[in-house]
């Protein structure tokens, strides 16, 4: 089952400002006299790569619960968590860097000491799906 991510407004604004800043920075060598072609091209490529990566992460964050695993996609990054390794899921509020695009998150503990934060938009449906597929896990709701 596919779960899209929740996105906070403040974080959306921050990410899109960074993307626009990178795009404008990449274009700036074409409007400034005295910049050589090689240096301008390098700045253009780096800035557009950063903007593309930020957009890919922002727009490409999604979560899947399959028969045997939780799949977390965040742009080019992919994390596979076997469902039988999940020990607990609980709601938290945090701004720690993670695969969550909201400060309203779920903390998932798996294996012995591993954890990941995610922010599914349909949190109750996600918790119900995990509870049904991981009966040994402790699942808390808000």
Tell me what the structure shows.
By secondary structure, this protein is α+β, with helices and mostly antiparallel strands. 37% of the residues lie in helices and 30% in strands. The strands form two sheets. A four-stranded antiparallel beta sheet has the order 1-2-3-4. Strands 7-6-5-8 form a four-stranded mixed beta sheet. Helix 1 (9-27) runs antiparallel to helix 2 (37-59). The longest helix has 23 residues, at 37-59. It is elongated.
Summary?
This protein has 142 residues and is of the alpha+beta class. The protein has helices at residues 9-27, 37-59, 123-133, and strands at residues 2-4, 61-65, 69-74, 77-82, 86-93, 104-110, 114-118, 138-139.
Class computed from helices, strands and strand pairing = alpha+beta
**Count, helices:** 3
Cα end-to-end separation: 21 Å
Q: Could you estimate the helical fraction of the residues in percent?
A: 25-40%
Q: List how many beta strands DSSP finds.
A: 8
Strands side by side in the biggest sheet? 1-2-3-4
**Rg over C-alpha atoms, rounded to the nearest angstrom:** 19 Å
Question: Per DSSP, what share of the residues sits in E-state strands of 2 or more residues?
Answer: 25-35%
General shape: elongated
Instruction: Let me know the average pLDDT.
Output: 92
Largest sheet: 4 strands, antiparallel
Contiguous low-pLDDT stretches (5 residues minimum) are none
- What sequence of helices (H) and strands (E) makes up the elements? EHHEEEEEEHE
């Amino acid at each position: 089952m596919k779960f899209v991510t929740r996105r906070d407004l403040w974080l959306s604004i921050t990410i899109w400002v960074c993307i626009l800043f990178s795009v404008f920075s990449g274009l700036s060598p074409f409007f400034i006299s005295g910049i050589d072609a090689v240096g301008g091209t390098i700045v253009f490529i780096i800035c557009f790569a950063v903007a593309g990566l930020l957009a890919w992460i922002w727009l490409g964050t999604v979560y899947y619960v399959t028969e045997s695993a939780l799949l977390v996609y965040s742009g080019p990054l992919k994390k596979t968590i076997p469902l039988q390794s999940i020990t607990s899921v609980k709601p938290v509020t945090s701004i720690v860097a993670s695969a969550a695009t909201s400060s309203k998150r779920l903390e998932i503990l798996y294996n012995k000491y591993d954890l990941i934060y995610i922010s599914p938009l349909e949190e109750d449906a996600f918790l119900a799906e995990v509870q049904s597929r991981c009966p040994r896990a402790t699942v808390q709701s808000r």
